[in-house]
Amino acid sequence: MVSKMESRKLYIKSMEKKFKEKPDDRKTEFYNYGTWRQSKRKTAYVEAAKKIEAERGIPGYNPDVGLAQGQRLLMPYQLNHTDYIVDMDDLHFMNNAAMQQIWDDMRRTVIVGMDMAHNILEKRLGKEVTPETINHYMELINHAMPGGAVIQEHMCEVNPEIASDCYVKFFTGDDELADQIDKRFLIDINKNFPEDQAEAIKNAIGKSSYQVVRVPTLVGRVCDGGTISRWSGMQIGMTMMGAYNMAAGEAATADFSYAAKHASVIEMSSFMPVRRARGSNEPGGMPFGVLADCVQSSRLYPDDPGRHTLEVIAAGAVVYDQIYLGSYMSGGVGFTQYASATYTDNILEDFVYYGIDYIKDKYGDFCTVEPTVANIEKISTDIAVYCLETYENYPTVMESHFGGSQRAACISAASGCATAMATGSATAGINAWYQSQLLHKEEMGRLGFYGYDLQDQCGSSNSFSFRSDEGLPFEMRGPNYPNYAMNVGHMSAYSGIATAPHAARGDAWTLSPLIKVAFSDNSLIFDFGHVVECYGKGAMREFVPAGERDAITP
Amino acid sequence: MAYKAQFAPGSSIISKNRRKYMDPDYQLKKLRSLSDEDIVLVLGHRAPGEDFKSVHPPLEEMGEPDCIIRELVEPTEGAKAGDRIRYVQFTDSVYSAPITPYQRAWAYCHRYRGIDTGTLSGRQIIEARERDVEKISKELIETEIFDPARTGIRGRTVHGHAVRLDENGLMFDAMRRYIYDATSGEVKYVKNMVGEPIDRPVSVGKPMADAELEKMTTMFRGDGVSINDDQEVIDVVNSVHWGRTFGGFKSVNRDGE
Questions:
Q1: How many CB atoms lie within 10 A of CB B249?
Q2: Are A449 and B120 an interchain contact pair (Cβ–Cβ within 8 Å)?
Q3: How much is the pLDDT for B64?
Q4: A38 DSSP assignment
Q5: Could you please report the per-residue DSSP string of chain B?
């Protein structure tokens, strides 16, 4: 058992690349790195800022007036399970086009059921709906959704170059119908998923059919997530009238509109209460299970539950921690250093795979352990102590996660994910997260920021609560759950804990088969099957995003 | 039956040290001496010799209302004088610093009155009336819970607790508030808590040897005393966890009784 665990420790290589020193040495040198000048990025920022100041006459970025950056090595970061080694500045979402796009692609998506509209056409209006009429509708909606006019003349239309990322696709659980749909519009479940997952998904969807709408990235940026279903609903309503030759004024069009804008719409997130008010399709209202289903490693690497869990954690780190809590709710630069700990340097990677080895060695297989408190405490303690002592035995690992909150997130994520995988229960996993926090505090005599001192000290009490005003199954909770609402750094791990039991069991999805299918679409700009790798491309400036305005600028 | 505080569970040297530092009846060992002026210089709240700033008149002059709580609670010297609220904050290295942020909070609450503490992963602040802060600071810096190399006196830019040590074994400080004097072997503060240069260096003494620190520390460590070697500590953690998980929902104990 030990040798297998020893053979992992990928972080040792990451540490050697980062520091170019022995990873287990306690001593090093400081104050001789040339401050910010040691960083190519920061040096370039200074040069750029000088030009900006010369042009606009207002001073801007100048590290010489802030606290001197770079008194110690400004080390690079290796992205988990990739060879990308990147500058830390390039992990701020403002500097990383891929990180912007992962959120753009979630925000600009709605899924709209087609059964209600088809029922209205067939049962109320006596019109025929066939694969041919659906194909005709799909062609028309792909003209309308980016901003083309359908039934009115003399309209102001949108330049297709500015909306080149916009389209609508179709999926169904009915193989016979799917076979007759134009392949340009079809999300092919049989092709995209392993056979067992495809069967499970098709059984869940049945003969129902859905359209997946990708509104232009720019619409989400200029307006907000709440706009997406409105933009989509308007264009779907117009297209229905156009495709099925209906009167603009007949009463059935109201039913189409209601279906397209409300009754048949599945959004990525619900709107939030006024104290944290945001519209729907904004990150704060997105349940962890939805985020888990956006990520696609479960179908691409179905035998590697660790990878899927870690990919979801990486998605949560950027969408929830860096963008939502770090910017929607806070702002500034502090959150990147903190949140990136979960997807860099193979540290959490090692912790999660240690947990997988531990489960297999101790219990034989995933999802076999009864979720008793005694079992939760045993697994959580063993994993947490391994993680704590990794930091203590490898000073460079400790230095990589130089804030206690980084360590608290990674250690408890490992405890929570391992417990969830062992028991097959995300609820047991989140209870383990809290046990791990208590143990961490007792072992080191320190933990993290305020959230760890408050919410993580009392969170055990709501981990098993399913009452509607106090809790939900963990997969259905999200950043807006009261005990989590201010807990930056936690959201990535929570997403992983929600995912872990399903990944371990080999489930085709975590919360929604519809969302899993919608994001298996290979026309998306962001690659949801390779989240961390995409971040690396963004950091290296290899990623081509959508939403650029070149077509309308000088 | 008189209650006898246990303070902290466990049988390891780590647990014993925790109990010692938290027990107000235990006299912290004095290891070094600093003058009152040294303390004022390092804290940087006032210039040496400058009067304390006050935010209200002395309590004796205020004609306080008749109040049983005021009769029960003896004001601190700083409160009596009307001092403003100031602070001292320490960063404790993970490399066997004698005390940790949580231990500080617990020890402070047992040892001092009229205080407010705040705990994060690397540093711990204690706020109180200014002359009380100076008195508390003197004890905290002069005694065994302070090591010149592994404990930092830092008002801001506090990181360093988890960063490796420099070639002299000193904890990293981005503001370089202290230096190692190779001639004397002492650590000297050349800046105050918030990083402003001070008029003269203030020595806080020689760093303790690693072996000595390992006997004094309150941290379990993978390369020291493992928490796995002190089962009672883990049992108490699990007891707290069980209580918080089920306390509000089930009136039964861990064995289902």
A1: 10
A2: yes
A3: 86
A4: G
A5: -------S--SSHHHHHHHHHH-TTS-PPB-----HHHHHHHH-SS-TTPPPPBSS--HHHH-PPP-HHHHHSPPPHHHHHTBPEEEEEEEE-TTT-S--HHHHHHHHHHH-SS-EEEE-SSEEEEEEEHHHHHHHHHHHHHBTT--TTTEEE-SS----TTSPB-TTSPBP-TT--EEEETTTTEEEEEE-TTS-EEEEEEE--PPPPHHHHHHH-----TTSS-GGG-HHHHHHHHHHHHHHHHTTT----TT--
Interface check for B241 against chain A (CB to CB < 8 A): the answer is yes
A487 counts as catalytic:
yes
Please judge whether B162 and A458 are an interchain contact, meaning their C-beta atoms are less than 8 angstroms apart: no
Please tell me which of the candidates A29, A71, A401 has its beta carbon nearest to residue B167.
A29
Calculate mean pLDDT across residues B186-206: 98
The SS3 assignment for A463 reads helix
Residues of B in contact with A67 (CB under 8 A): 157, 174-175
- What the block records as the tokens of B253 is 């104990």
- For the ranges A1-5, A249-253, B225-229, which has the lowest average pLDDT? A1-5
A280 by DSSP, 3-state: which?
Answer: coil
Whether A296 is catalytic = no
pLDDT, tens digit, 9 for 90 and up, residues B20-52: 999 999 999 999 999 999 999 999 999 999 999
- DSSP single-letter state for residue A72: S
Partner residue facing A438 (CB), from B92, B167, B240: B240
CA B53 – CA B244 distance, rounded (Å)? 44
User: Would you say residue A5 has pLDDT above 50?
Assistant: no
> Which tens digit of pLDDT belongs to each residue from B122-145?
999 999 999 999 999 999 999 999
Q: How confident is the model at residue A2 (pLDDT cuts 50, 70, 90)?
A: very low
* Chain A interface, best mutation among B167, B172, B241, by max A CB count within 10 A: B241
- pLDDT at res. A147: 97
B97 vs A69, higher pLDDT: B97
Q: Look at residue A6 in the predicted model and tell me its pLDDT.
A: 43
Q: Give CA separation, A154 vs A148, A236, A247, A262, A297, in Å.
A: 11, 19, 19, 29, 46
Once rounded to an integer, what is the mean pLDDT over residues A345-358?
97
The DSSP bridge partners found for residue A542 are none
Active site residue A536: no
Displacement of CA B102 from its chain's centroid (Å): 9
pLDDT tens for A77-123 read 999 999 999 999 999 999 999 999 999 999 999 999 999 999 999 99
Task: With residue A77 as reference, give the H or E element that holds it.
Answer: strand A77-78
Mean residue pLDDT of chain A comes to 94
C-alpha span between A512 and A476 (Å, rounded): 10
Confirm whether A71 is a catalytic residue. no
**Among candidates A392, A402, A461 on the partner chain, residue whose Cβ is nearest the Cβ of B163:** A402
Neighbour-count burial for A109-121, b at 16+ CB within 10 Å, e otherwise: bbbbbbebbbebb
pLDDT at B249: 63
Question: Which chain A positions have a beta carbon within 8 Å of B7's beta carbon?
Answer: none
The ipTM (two decimal places) reads 0.96
Using CB atoms and an 8 Å cut-off, which of residues 325-384 of chain A contact chain B? 373, 377, 381
With pLDDT > 90 as the criterion, what percentage of chain A qualifies?
A: 86
Residues of B with CB below 8 A from A72's CB?
163, 172, 174
Contacts of A92 (CB under 8 A, 6+ apart): A322, A333, A336
CA-based angle B134:B140:B144, to the nearest 5? Answer: 155
Return the H-helix or E-strand segment holding A266: strand A265-266
More confident of the two residues A251 and B8: B8
Q: Residue A249's pLDDT is what?
A: 82
